[in-house]
Design brief:
With 353 residues, the protein is mostly helical. It has 14 helices and no strands. Helix 9 runs antiparallel to helix 14 and helix 10 packs antiparallel against helix 11. The protein starts with a helix and ends with a helix.
């Protein structure tokens, strides 16, 4: 008990540590309590943070900041419009087509599984039937989930429209008034908040590199995979390639999970013929190039976490915030790593003192 009391006394006697922990506690409480309501604001902050790098690049060439903001924001809106007008209708069409064809896909999969014992005597008909029943029940559950999603789609569409109106406005003002907003936030902190600023700069650098690198990786893998599937004529090429691109968000696991539907669709469409073989060879080459070339190239300046730490962070933050928790799991883990490192160093200083 005496050791714990001395430890608490040492920690709370360090003003910088107290300020840092108060900032983290207040920020965490706000996100956990009203995070869903602030989702458009948080998303706008992230987009502004990414666009800020381009604005700073132009300002470095002596562009007026306002002109740089207007140009970057205009290009961002053009990109957003192209994505919505060209991509969304195609994705909706392919998703609708896939849902309509689910019974046929299930039937084809069942027929293929039923004939497996003839080709591979090591499998018994009872084992295959168990797998068929399990898959049928799983697809039935997915169908119910799709129906429930469609019933709540009106609210989702309304939220999407609101986000599309509010977020561009907030992104523009976050870029335009960045210094004013940061000065206002810093006004709530004590004048001497060196430790909190150090952690923020460390996380900002590492998380910024990570998010920018991941976004480039998503687009590159998405485009390369789409070109592969389109060349071989794979059904639902845009939908599957988008899933493959988004799978890079989840290290080590995403690629394995998304490969399953790719293999199923390719097998049902072609069987084990030359199209299937060559398409899957090119697909796996893209995966290998991503893991061994793109990741080291794009994420070399990002956080360096052990695989167990990365997977744990994905499970924890993904369970709390869903997709966005998965996307920002690694930056959030880098925040935890930075805070622990700072706390360890300060504790060492306190003990030596």
């Amino acid at each position: 008990m005496e050791i714990f009391r001395r430890w608490m006394s040492a920690v709370f006697s360090d003003t910088q540590l107290v300020i840092l922990f108060l900032v983290l506690v207040v920020s965490g409480a706000i996100v956990l309590s009203v995070g869903n309501l602030l989702a458009p604001v948080i998303a706008s902050v992230v987009i502004s943070f990414l666009l800020e790098g381009v604005v700073r690049f132009l300002v470095g060439f002596r562009w007026p900041r306002m002109l740089a903001v207007v140009l970057v924001f205009g290009l961002f809106m053009l990109f957003l419009a192209v994505m919505i007008l060209a991509l969304v209708p195609l994705l909706v069409s392919q998703i609708t087509d896939l849902i309509d064809n689910i019974p046929w896909i299930v039937s084809k999969a069942q027929n293929a599984l039923v004939h497996l014992p003839r080709q591979y005597p090591i499998l018994t008909e009872a084992q295959v039937q168990t797998v068929v029943d399990s898959l049928t029940a799983q697809f039935s559950q997915y169908g119910q989930q799709v129906l429930a999603f469609s019933l709540s789609s009106v609210r989702s569409v309304f939220s999407f429209v609101v986000y599309m109106v509010l977020m561009p406005i907030m992104v523009f003002f976050f870029l335009k008034d960045k210094d004013v907003i940061l000065d206002w936030l810093c006004g709530f902190l004590p004048k001497d908040h060196t430790l909190a600023s150090t952690v923020w700069l460390d996380v900002k650098m590492q998380a910024g590199n990570y998010v920018r690198g991941r976004i480039w990786e998503i687009f590159i893998v998405w485009i390369a995979t789409y070109a592969c599937f389109l060349y071989f004529g794979l059904d639902y090429a845009m939908l599957l390639s988008l899933l493959v691109g988004l799978s890079v968000i989840i290290p080590y696991i995403g690629a394995v999970v998304v490969t399953v539907p790719v293999l199923i669709i390719a097998y049902i469409q072609w069987g084990f013929d030359a199209h299937f073989t060559w398409a899957m060879i090119v697909y796996f080459v893209i995966q290998l190039l991503d893991a061994n070339l793109l990741v080291p190239l794009l994420l070399s300046g990002a956080v360096n976490l052990h695989p167990i730490a990365s997977i744990t962070a994905i499970l924890i933050f993904g369970g709390i915030w869903g997709f966005w928790g998965v996307f920002f799991a690694i930056p959030l883990a880098s925040l935890v790593q930075s805070v622990l490192g700072v706390w360890k160093n300060r504790r060492g200083c306190l003990v030596e003192g």
